[in-house]
Design brief:
By secondary structure, the protein is an alpha/beta fold. The protein has one domain: Alpha-Beta Barrel (TIM Barrel), CATH 3.20.20.140. It is built from 13 helices and 12 strands. The strands form 3 sheets. Strands 6-7-8-9-10-11 form a 6-stranded parallel beta sheet. A hairpin with a 2-residue loop joins strand 1 and strand 2. The protein is globular, with a radius of gyration of 18 Å. The N and C termini lie close together (6 Å). 50% of the residues are buried.
């Protein structure tokens, strides 16, 4: 029997509803704190909550918060937002990518991680299996020593490279997945190294139907997308609203290319809204309401004009596929 693990507890996949598959709600990444990059600090619970309410008021029901320990989670604040809004939120165990690990570990985490100076020092000192045990604990007991259990496991790699420590965390997360049956999520920097990640995951015996690859729209290459889709993995188009990277027409065409090839069951859509300037209630950005309020109607219109059933596809991307992707397979 499968279930989805949320901040509200475990639920049946049919209860998840309309879902953003990759967002960040409240976080203070230590790396960006040290570099005084205020735009990358989502540090006001009440402002974040207002954006979550905008999403809910337009029919949104669930959000996957893809914030790992090295990206400065605020587990308690996100739990309160889940409780106060009624939006179901899925938390994340695991890791992000290597350059973030130069940051100092906050004192509040020393009793959870150990007495290490930086994330790099911690990851380097531990074995793959010791890191896997840490991730398993966050899924089975709670994130950062709380009783709030993670609902997916995550790893990441950098732009056009996989460092030794990134490979180490990938293998640790793969092993934690085998032990817990938690769904997997991959950060691919600018959409690169997905195929290389796949080879490493295969060496760990991972069934690729249980993983979603993030940032696929940062690399709008239909051939590349098809190679990933052929493995059974899900592709996350999670840069919606970020016109600086590509126009929405490019994203929509990449998605429809996959649909035309028969991969509509392997597509997720979200915004990775991780800056103040992306949020409406922090800095007047498009906010969490933009995808459900404006992008979805546009996608339906474009899909219908090209002979697809736009409403059916939206139900796939935001309801059916997340319900399958984020389920623990017991």
């Amino acid at each position: 029997m499968s279930f989805i693990r949320t901040f509200h507890g475990d639920i049946d996949p049919s209860e998840l509803g309309f879902t953003y598959s990759h967002e960040h709600i409240v976080c203070r990444p230590p790396y960006w704190v040290e570099h005084e990059a205020d735009d990358l600090l989502l540090d006001d619970k009440e402002k974040s909550k207002l954006d979550v309410l905008d999403f809910k008021n337009l029919g949104g029901q669930a959000i996957v918060d893809a914030t790992a320990i090295d990206y400065g989670r605020d587990v308690q604040a996100v739990k309160e937002i889940a409780e106060e809004t009624g939006v179901k939120i899925v938390g994340t165990a695991g890791f992000n990518k290597s350059f973030l690990w130069d940051a100092k570990i906050p004192e509040r985490l020393k009793n959870v991680i150990g007495d290490y100076d930086t994330y790099h020092e911690w990851i380097d000192a531990k074995s793959i299996n010791e890191l896997a045990d840490f991730v398993i604990k966050e899924i089975e007991e709670g994130l950062e020593g709380t009783t709030i259990r993670g609902g997916q496991v995550k790893f990441g790699t950098g732009y056009n490279r996989i460092t030794p420590l990134e490979e180490k965390t990938l293998r640790a997360v793969a092993r934690a997945h085998h032990e817990t049956k938690a769904p997997l999520h991959s950060h691919t920097e600018a959409g690169t190294m997905g195929l290389e990640q796949i080879e490493l995951l295969k060496s760990e015996g991972v069934n690729l139907e249980y993983i979603s690859f993030g940032h696929m729209d940062r690399n709008p290459d239909p051939y590349y997308h098809e190679q990933i889709a052929k493995t059974g993995a899900l592709l996350s188009f999670d840069g919606i609203s970020k016109i600086k990277y590509a126009p929405e027409s490019t994203r929509i065409q990449c998605i429809l290319d996959l649909v035309e090839k028969g991969y509509e069951d392997q597509i997720l859509v979200s915004g990775d809204t991780a800056r103040k300037s992306y949020y409406k209630h922090y800095d007047f950005g498009l906010g969490l309401e933009n995808i459900i309020g404006k992008w979805v109607p546009r996608f339906i219109d474009e899909a219908n004009k090209k002979g697809f059933d736009g409403n059916k596809l939206i139900d796939k991307f935001f309801v059916q596929n997340p319900a399958r992707c984020f389920a623990f397979k017991k």
